[in-house]
Structure formats: C-alpha cells, structure tokens
Design brief:
The chain is of the alpha+beta class. It is built from six helices and twelve strands.
C-alpha cells in the first residue's frame, strides 16, 4: 500500500511507544521512529543519530527532555506526561535548493491549522517560529542544519508543544508568557491523537516536497501572523528596530516600515519580534 495515501485517523493508548512508532512509520515520508521516555534534547539526540547514518524521515519522540532548548539556547521546560517533544530528520539530497530555511514557518502553519480544529478561539503564528494562544506561547519550533558546499546535508526539525501543562507547572518566570493546549481549550487531550494528526499532515507536506518538488511558501503567514500591520519592536543582534510590520518576504524575512517611511527586511532567523509597540 502507498503510505502517502494512508490518511485515516488512528487513536492510540497513552504514550505506547511501540504503537506510536508503528503508526508513524505507516505514514507518508517517515521511515524510522524512535520513542524514548527521556532524553537530554530530541534535536541533539537525533543529530547524533544523523551523523551515524540515520535515514531521511527518521523521527525521535521523547516523553520528557532534561535539556530541551529553543532559539538562542533558551531553555524549553519539557516535563513527562505533559507535552509533545519530537524531532524529524530531513535529508534534502538533490532538492537541497528548495527554500528549506522556511521549514519552521511551514511546520508552524501545519501545527496551527491542527490546533484550530480544537477550539473556536484561534491559535496564531508569531514571527519567526512561535505559536501563541491569547498572546502566550504554546509551541516553539527549532530547525538546525548541517551543510557542506552550499547545500544542506541534513536538517533536524524540533517541535515542542505544551499540551496538558497546568499553569503552576510552568517555572514562575514563564507563568505569564507560556500556556498549553489544555489551558486554551479547557480540558486535557490525548497527546498521541494530536501527535498522529500532526505527523500525518507533516509527512504529507514533506512527501509533496520530495516527490512533487513542491516549493516551501510563507503565504499562510502573510494572512495569519499575529502582529501583521501592527507597530512592533524587533531585536536583531544588539540593535532594536521599531516600525510597522507590513509584510513577510518570500524568504521569510519580516518587512518593516520604519518611522521615517523606509522599508527594511529583517532576515528570518536573525532576529526576535519583541513586542507590539503602542
């Protein structure tokens, strides 16, 4: 049977490692799936596996991370039994010229579309790689790559989603800025059901990219980015830029109209959108 056509929904027992692995490797694109109760970082562990020859489409899932991290090395708290912490290995090979640097934004689109099926109150994408509910962070995406001769050898795409966390379970410093799917929709949800829905759609997207050479696009972000058409502050290195967020470039950069009516593009991956400026 062609795995690319297997899109039926499967409900699994709570974090049954073998059942999760079997279900994911039966989806489009994914060739191996490793499920651990705990790792330091899913990205770091999968990068070591990639260096040892793990195939394209390898997935690594952990029930908890002891050294989870986001952009710029920031800690991502990943307790057991609460969230989805997983990484995907992608080896672009002959299609390394695709706009792979946009992968975090494409993954963000897939995650938001799935989360928005759960509640009439919408989740939103926030440039460059976050997913928010009520302006609080519920998901982060971290893509790391190894390149040679101007091409990607491999990419490890890490995703962390707070699913069933309660407010007091976040560190005090994050209780005002972090949230979970449970807090957003008002009840706990089966993590494995959400995981399989996400992996089905992610696998189908990656299958289309590899088989049909579908080009990665940021069109969704232009219509759904939380701070679009608002006055914002952007930190890029040691500089802070202020202006109106008016567009996203084809390469994923934030197009800022400054106070003197000049346009500048803040490259994707090199800056952080700090806050809306009132």
């Amino acid at each position: 049977m062609n795995k690319a056509n297997e899109n039926h929904h499967v409900s699994l027992p709570a974090f049954d490692a073998q059942a999760i692995s079997d279900a994911i490797t039966n989806l489009a694109f994914f060739n191996e799936c490793h499920v651990f109760m705990s790792v330091g970082s899913t990205n770091d562990t999968l990068k070591r596996m990639a260096a040892s020859g793990a195939p394209n489409g390898t997935v690594l899932i952990a029930d908890s991370q002891t050294k989870g991290r986001g952009r710029f090395g920031r800690q991502w708290v990943s307790p057991p039994g609460k969230g989805l912490w997983f990484s995907i290995l992608i080896k672009p090979g002959e299609i390394s010229t695709n706009r792979w640097h946009l992968l975090p934004m494409v993954l963000g689109e897939i995650i938001v579309l799935n989360l928005n099926k759960l509640t009439p109150v919408q989740f939103h994408v926030k440039w460059p790689n976050d997913i928010l509910f009520n302006k609080q962070k519920v998901c982060g995406i971290l893509c790391e790559s190894v390149s040679s001769r101007h091409a990607f050898d491999y990419i490890v795409a890490g995703i962390g989603i707070n699913v069933n966390n309660n407010r007091p379970e976040f560190p005090p410093a994050l209780q005002g800025t972090a949230t979970s799917v449970k807090l957003a929709i008002g009840h706990e949800m089966q993590r494995t059901d959400l995981l399989l829905d996400l992996m089905r759609d992610i696998g189908e997207k990656l299958h289309q990219i590899f088989v049909n050479q579908q080009v990665l696009s940021v069109n969704y972000w232009r219509d759904h980015c939380l701070d679009f058409n608002k006055n914002v502050q952007i930190r890029a290195g040691k500089k802070i830029h202020t202006g109106k967020f008016i567009d996203i470039s084809d390469d994923g950069g934030l197009v800022l109209e400054t106070e003197n009516q000049q346009r500048m593009i803040i490259p994707y991956g090199e800056a952080t959108l700090m806050k809306e400026k009132r």
